[in-house]
Amino acid sequence: MTEWAWEESRRAYADAAGWFVGTVRAVGDRWSAPGLGEWDVRALVGHTGRALLTVETYLARPASEVAVGSAAEYYRATRAAAADPAVTARGREAGVALGGDPAAAVAETAGRVLRLVEGCDGSELVSTLGGGMRLADYLPTRTFELAVHTADLATALGLPADVPPTTAAQALGLVGDLAVAGGLAGALLLAATGRAPLPPRWSVL
Can you give the residue ranges of the Mycothiol-dependent maleylpyruvate isomerase metal-binding domain (predicted)? Predict the structure, then answer.
């Protein structure tokens, strides 16, 4: 599995958060427009913002031991939970919680969480949905979520999905790890080099 230096992960996360904040500012009055699947734009933004809030929440709940050793392992450990219909409901609830000025709420949350992460060294043990993890292993999963869902938001708004390079490098590294772990590396390589298309709804998750 790919290992990233803490400073590299922290920068990728900060850049992802900055891209998310900037894209949210572009929403304007389109909060009820289609976002992703069953979510409108507000719910999509609410769900994406959880990639900030869970870092804050989990840092406040230290773990006693490591149960999940990598970002890719986290996705395997939480696969069933990710398919739970409650995820959709939590996205809507998170969107409502953004209040009357969602863009300002997102910017405030991002600033607060990034300051918190700035004071960490990555060795912190956090209690995640999948079990205890080092923050250095958990943070790339949140960078990935910010990258994918901000791209979803940009698409919904008719904007280019210009993922910051640091963020893109880490997110794509995790995609590669997930593809290898899931026996999907061949299909991904063929598609990425223009040799064969991927079937509809194909995913490394």
Answer: 25-154
Distance, in Å, from the CA atom of 175 to the CA atom of 179, rounded to the nearest integer, reads: 6
Are the C-beta atoms of 47 and 104 separated by less than 8 Å?
A: no
User: What's the pLDDT tens digit per position in 33-74?
Assistant: 999 999 999 999 999 999 999 999 999 999 999 999 999 999
Give the H or E element holding residue 11.
helix 6-25
Q: How many helices (H) and strands (E) does the chain have?
A: 9, 4
Dump pLDDT digits (tens) for 92-149.
999 999 999 999 999 999 999 999 999 999 999 999 999 999 999 999 999 999 999 9
All structural domains of the chain, each given as residue ranges with its CATH number in brackets, are 6-183 (1.20.120)
pTM score of the predicted model:
0.95
DSSP-assigned letters across all residues of 66-124: -S--SHHHHHHHTHHHHT-THHHHHHHHHHHHTTT-HHHHHHHHHHHHHHHHHT--S--
